[in-house]
Write a structure and sequence with these properties.
The protein is mainly α. The chain is 57% helix and 3% strand.
């Protein structure tokens, strides 16, 4: 019997690419599917508040050895993909460390339940989406999908490729389907626990959590590709209106006429009136430096 391959990421990537080809030319090139993404975001928020977050919080309060074992096992299953992408990015030292981690933890560490290497060779995430970014590929349109969360065309394609290049995808062992489903759910819940503080900060401080989460995700992905640090406190403001213009006093002189050929407004005024993407570019944020496609 032929081994089953993960199809959901591939279908998502194909559908997203199709929608990208049919997107209207006047749409925001960063988020041309914003109406759809916002609907999916609202669905995901409801699922998160009533189902996902409560389960994740229970997992976060579980005994330390149980929680650590799930995370170690999930990390160990991802090491082959991390190793391949380390090689593709020409990081020979990191690739060697990843291979050593996988061999030791898969044997001495009882199939990855124990992280024997520990801080001596720490785990790091890597995927084909990051490899494509380091090869110069732009992220493409932003996507938000229920349960899967924020993404983009590049990462959707990268996720599909990661499933295809993982040797464990083609291995046969007892209870494979149940183990794959369990580790996927446990890994997703673990990431939800790790992201809890950032999500709560976004919800508490932003009147448009969708836009703030989008910016945080895109800047975070670029940080993983370029090596720059991104803090949630450095997100641009989406919601604060510009302060009203101060009316001229009674004795003030009329404004001076501009010289011939001069622009009709100052650079600062032009930046204030520009769309959000141009204001980010003016601020030289990482988000603005990598939008090529």
């Amino acid at each position: 019997m032929r081994p089953r391959r993960p199809r959901l990421p591939l279908l998502l990537a194909t559908a997203s690419a199709f929608m990208g080809a049919a997107a209207p030319t006047l749409a925001d090139p960063i988020d041309p599917f914003e109406p759809m993404n916002r609907r999916f975001f609202a669905i995901n928020e409801a699922l998160d508040q009533h189902i996902i977050a409560p389960i994740a919080h229970r997992l976060g309060s579980a005994p330390g050895p149980f929680r650590a074992g799930l995370r170690n096992f999930s990390h160990n299953l991802s090491e082959p993909v991390v190793f391949i992408n380390d090689v593709l990015q020409f990081h020979g030292g990191r690739a060697a460390g990843t291979l050593v981690r996988f061999v030791i933890n898969s044997t001495v560490g009882i199939g990855g339940l124990l992280d024997v290497t520990g801080n001596a060779i720490p785990h790091h995430d890597n995927g084909f989406g990051t490899t494509l970014g380091r090869w110069g590929m732009g992220p493409g349109p932003y996507l938000f999908l229920p349960l899967l969360g924020p993404s983009d065309i590049r990462d959707a394609f990268g996720g599909a490729a990661d499933g295809g290049m993982n040797p464990l995808t083609y291995a046969r062992y007892a209870h494979k389907a149940a183990i794959n489903i369990g580790t996927t759910i446990a890994g997703g819940l673990g990431k939800r626990v790790d992201a809890d503080q950032d999500l709560e900060t976004i919800r508490a401080t932003s009147t448009d959590p969708y836009a703030s989460l989008r910016s945080f995700y895109l800047q975070n992905r670029q940080a993983e590709i370029s090596g720059k640090d991104v803090s949630i406190e450095n997100l641009p403001s989406f919601d604060e209106p510009a302060p009203p213009a101060k009316p001229p006093a009674a004795g003030d002189a009329p404004p001076k006429p501009q010289a011939a050929g001069a622009a009709t407004g100052t650079a600062a005024n032009a930046s204030a009136c520009a769309p959000a993407t141009e204001r980010w570019a003016d601020a030289d944020l990482p988000y603005a430096t990598w939008r090529g496609g």
